[in-house]
Write a structure and sequence with these properties.
alpha/beta; 53% helix
Length: 539
Amino acid sequence: MRSICLYFQVHQPFRLRTYRFFDMGRDHNYYDEYQNRYIIRRVAEKSYLPANKIMLDLIKEYGAAFKVSYSISGIALQQLEQYAPAVIDSFKALAKTGNVEFLAETYAHSLSSLKSPEEFKAQVKAHSMKIEELFGVKPTSFRNTELIYSDDIGAMVADMGYDLMLTEGAKHVLGWKSPNYMYCNAINPRLKLLLRNFTLSDDISFRFSQQSWGEWPVTADKFVSWLNNINKEEQVVNIFADYETFGEHQWAETGIFDFLKALPAAVYKDSDFSFKNPRDLATELQPVSAIHVPYAISWADEERDLTAWLGNDLQDDAFDNLYALKKVIDGTEDQQLIRDWNYLQTSDHFYYMCTKWFSDGDVHKYFNPYQSPYEAYINYMNILSDFTIRVNEDAKKRGLNPLEIMQDLAEKQKEIIKEVGKNVKHGLQEGAKEVSQKAQKARVEAKKQLKAAQELRFEDLQDMSKTRLKNFLKEVESEEIAKALKGAGEDLSSYITDNMGVRAKKKLDDINKQLKKVSKTDIKKSQENLMKKFKEIFK
């Protein structure tokens, strides 16, 4: 028999409260408790609880013939434990049936796989422990935040011990191939891949109640007829969707719950399909080929890329400044800092800064607490500035030198504020003035920190922002860089060369071909010369 794999994502972020300039240094509570409590309870009542009851009833009716899988972010689990514990109990009841698979993901529903392998692995481990603690099962299959995947990310997942991962069946990746087979990672073929059938998934998630759609209304029998039209040789149809599809995105009045109840009966009556979990399929199916994904994909928007979260100036600035704190925050024992570090990584904060208001505009407005992406950016950066001050203070107590993080943050904000001023109305311009005042204050503080720094090491260039590093590299000799990099680690070398211009890279390659063995003394001297130059440029 051919298979249907039902997988649902459960996630809600900790939403941020309106945080002003004058809150910095005085109030470290960043979260809108009322909205977080209200939304999680609303979604629990309208979606999670009724959907879980239907799933449990279907399992009781069909036994092992009906299976379903979930990934629940650690952030969502925390809110459910706090505000809607009945949902946790209902998932525990599903777990006890043995027919439900819980997948691993990042604890904070973050974009860490795109920035920090260490943070990525730490969050996946923390999430797996949370799932095992609550439901008594250790996840063995993996899905990344928003199904984000690339060859490199898949290789990291395989290195963590997972042999199966879920991702999007993106057209620009598959070409003529069908998503209805098992595939594998191009770097490590041991990692099998299940690809989302976005057409059938979106028929349920987005088009189910769209009366202008030619296929409306969607019934279980009609959906099964679409399944039957699939080539008989194709092995598995992966229906992946947000769990909020049931009752929240598609209200109960649309008939979505009736559709869910009727689907298994229609499948077993009129098709040769059965329901399987990812783990079943990992055991039963072998990959037909590898898929090559050099650039990350996701299940978001028409492009199926990362532009829902990253790509515009607002998103990239906030993202870079957040992860500039990674090495400084490592090792802290301050539990409040660790909590906020996790919550601020949640991908939704960057999603709210998206400026794509075309075909996917309505999607980006859903559960969005901001009037515009510029307002989302200003609010997030206000909070990040206060958080950065706290991280720096904690670092000083631990005897560390936080370098120029505050200065980078302030200077970048000033640049972005110019963009904000061009695109927002009077109300948000007032907010931009507040950020400008904050930026000035932050620059003064940063200069004090930089002056007090004992010594800037060559290795610390890895902690520099991309903008600052690129500006620096334009001012130094390629030969000096080539010598200095002879004694640098792979991560630092990659970070520096990735931020060099095309001509500078070519020149560096030519110099490396000519350079013979470089002594440790020459390496150290070149590194010292570069850091001396750095201090002259940015004094």
